[in-house]
Amino acid sequence: MAYFTHILLNNVIPLTIMIAIGVILYRAFKLDIKTLSKLNFYLFSPALVFKMLYESSLSLAVLGQTLLFFVLFFAAMFLLMEVVIRLRGYKEGMIPAMRNSVIFYNSANYAIPLNQLVFVGDAFTLSIQIIIMMMQSLLPNTYGIYAVNASKRNDMKQTFRTILTLPVIYIIPIAFLMKGLHLPIPGPVYAPINYVSDAFIATALLTLGVQLGSMKWTFNLADVVLSNVLRLCVGPAVGFLIVLLMGIEGVMAQALVLSCAVPTSLSSVLIAVEYDNEPEFSSQAVFSSTIFSIFTVTLVIYLIKFIN
């Protein structure tokens, strides 16, 4: 019950308030969602990724094992989504929209505080979650954008040029290089990085709120529920099976399974909005999975205690 209350008070309610502010601002001023989307892609998200990687403590052993887990988990969920997509008979834009709502999950502003709550500020489990966050920042900005444009039969050369303009692709190696070489960042430069990265969560949630405020709210209930079940219930179950397959035990296994249990990423909404690809479904999937995660994440927290 304590976890349920904490997740509700410290994750879901604050997120909902920010989303509600976005809805109100759209209704009052008709904010331009494309501008908000570009700010997230080109400024706020890269700054957050750089700061967290530069400040993290990552060992090569943990990095390698976590990356292997992530690759196996991503491949398993991708194959599962291909089966679901074919069984449901999705067409064109709905294919990447449904896939993105399940394989891209909120590994930063939801999962990192959750990790530190469950593992009481453990630096080891935090480093695991930061690696997951790194990959979940990279993939939406590469494969996610490619898949959406491929489904819309857009010019692939232009798509690849767009992907190559995204800062996060370059920010990740730069952060690792600067960290590995122990290169200090001057205070006047690091201060703006802190300002911008701190603004990511607020801006991303306001963007979601603006999108929700502009929607006609024609629910596709079956697809939204299916997305939520696959993300919140099937995701951690698959994560647990991969942990068993890899022979990972103890707190690392618990942290990896927990990382798979969080709701749909805001990145899926940002991609949907930026490329006009099922933005209503994507927004509803993010919002509803965040609400329902109160119950599912609490259950996962209880169950991972039995992983030894």
UniProtKB/TrEMBL annotation:
Belongs to the auxin efflux carrier (TC 2.A.69) family. Gene3D superfamilies: 1.20.1530.20. It is found in: Cell membrane. GO terms for biological process: transmembrane transport. Pfam families: Mem_trans. This is Transporter. It comes from the Bacteria. One of its GO terms (cellular component) is plasma membrane. Keywords: Cell membrane, Membrane, Transmembrane, Transmembrane helix, Transport.
